[in-house]
Design a protein that fits this description.
alpha+beta, 3-stranded antiparallel sheet, extended
């Protein structure tokens, strides 16, 4: 599923115009993005949580040349699946 199909599914399920559902989905994603930019976590019970993970600087290698390079410290979003979602996916995989 991609963003466009999510918008369509919401419009169909809530019996609303696609434009309205697109506004809602965009508002949710924008607010989630802004929360992560501020360093806040996001928890959606039964689905999962989003957080920011900090990675220290390290020395890596260029895979083409083998040259050693310094990789700067970085902060990246991280998703941890919730227990309910994990169990539902595992139950479907077993059947």
């Amino acid at each position: 599923m991609n963003k466009s199909s999510l918008i369509d599914a919401l419009a169909e399920k809530m019996n609303m115009q696609r434009q309205q559902s697109e506004f809602i989905i965009n508002a949710i994603f924008n607010d989630m993005t802004e929360a992560l930019v501020r360093g806040e976590g996001i928890e959606i019970r039964g689905f999962g949580s989003f957080s920011i993970r900090e990675y220290k600087a390290y020395t890596g290698r260029n895979p083409k040349t083998g040259e050693r390079i310094k990789v700067k410290p970085k902060k990246l979003p991280f998703f941890k699946v919730g227990k309910d979602l994990k169990e539902r996916v595992m139950a479907k995989a077993r059947s």
